[in-house]
């Protein structure tokens, strides 16, 4: 998945721990995490 460019996890129940794995996707240019109410601002800041 290293070359993954687009990822949509809408309402998928992703958590802050799962977001840590997204940081490793360095080719990612489009990310949609909408409707994941378990995510904190801190987790989103870590991947921005």
TrEMBL record:
Gene3D superfamilies: Ribonuclease Inhibitor. InterPro entries: Leu-rich_rpt, LRR_dom_sf. SUPFAM superfamilies: RNI-like (SSF52047). It comes from the Eukaryota. This is Uncharacterized protein.
């Amino acid at each position: 998945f290293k070359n993954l460019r687009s990822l949509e996890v809408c309402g998928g129940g992703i958590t802050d721990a799962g977001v840590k794995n997204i940081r490793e996707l360095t080719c990612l240019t489009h990310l949609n995490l909408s409707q994941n109410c378990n995510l904190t601002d801190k987790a989103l800041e870590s991947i921005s």
